[in-house]
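Input (RmlD-like substrate binding domain-containing protein):
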Amino acid sequence: MDWYINNPNWWGDVTGALLPHPRMLMMPGGLESHFEGSEEEKPASFGSSNTRMVVPSSKNTSSQQKHPFMFLIYGRTGWIGGLLGKLCEKQGIPYEYGKGRLEDRSSLLANLQNVKPTHVINAAGVTGRPNVDWCESHKTETIRTNVAGTLTMADVCREHGILMINYATGCIFEYNATHPEGSGIGFKEEASPISLALSIPKLKLWVCMPISSDLSNPRNFITKISRYNKVVNIPNSMTILDELLPISIEMAKRNLKGIWNFTNPGVQAKLVVAPRSNNEIDASKLKTEFPELLSIKESLMKYVFEPNKKT
Ligand SMILES: NC(=O)c1ccc[n+]([C@@H]2O[C@H](COP(=O)([O-])OP(=O)(O)OC[C@H]3O[C@@H](n4cnc5c(N)ncnc54)[C@H](OP(=O)(O)O)[C@@H]3O)[C@@H](O)[C@H]2O)c1
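Output:
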């Protein structure tokens, strides 16, 4: 046993023996050709040499060999991250929760090299407690994690040719002259001001006012507004997690990239006072990719109200 541990390179590259479709190795570019995109998107390789040993990682080893996907999910203790883990379990997708911290590059590198994911699903971020106002008064901590940390993770994924799926807030627009309130003209993905983030290939999902069927969860938008003293009647885009999180997993499987407005089509009125929290974003790109996507009203009925109906 000691000898095998001390001579890990003795057998050379045996990756092909463990692949369900070893033909991939014989194709030009080998495994690397499996990654889509430009040269700089391709993996630098996990190892320091071209001899890649398959080192058993902490768990799920047998399912990794059989399954084409291995998701590394950041946000284990969070609302969206917790739901994503449950979805992977339900769908039989091998996954692990991230162990690094977003702003600590070396911890992310070590985590990726250990788990060897096909995708990094990033639902981690500082969201503020008791509410998002905390982020306004703690700008340094917020920028360190949500801006520097997210970009660090995106860069580490880029280096390894791994697609990162990032859940971010879509509350970045305000109604204006070209997008007047109530006009039905929503902000399209191209209106996004985040050009720096666009230069790193990844899948960025703009989430708005997330709602789930779990009405006991204080993060649930319906639960939140039911506790506000003051609400306003302004149309807003929203994300029904029960319908959209499975779609985001499908987007990962399809290796989709770029910025996507990640809401149900249409708007729902009444909500928060801060102007940038109230806006309509255009979900037509998502609807074109997933024609079965329900409108906000239909989705609320199907995924939130019906399951919670008292019989
Ligand atoms: N909930 C919303 O209203 C909403 C709306 C739009 C978009 N989003 C976005 O969706 C993402 C997930 O939201 P959520 O509601 O699930 O958030 P959440 O419940 O507050 O969970 C955040 C998660 O991020 C982790 N985290 C925080 N700082 C980290 C760091 N520096 N390194 C690694 N992990 C870190 C937390 O882990 P620890 O506990 O270990 O710190 C936690 O697991 C966030 O980026 C948020 O901006 C949320």
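The first helix runs from residue 2 to 6.
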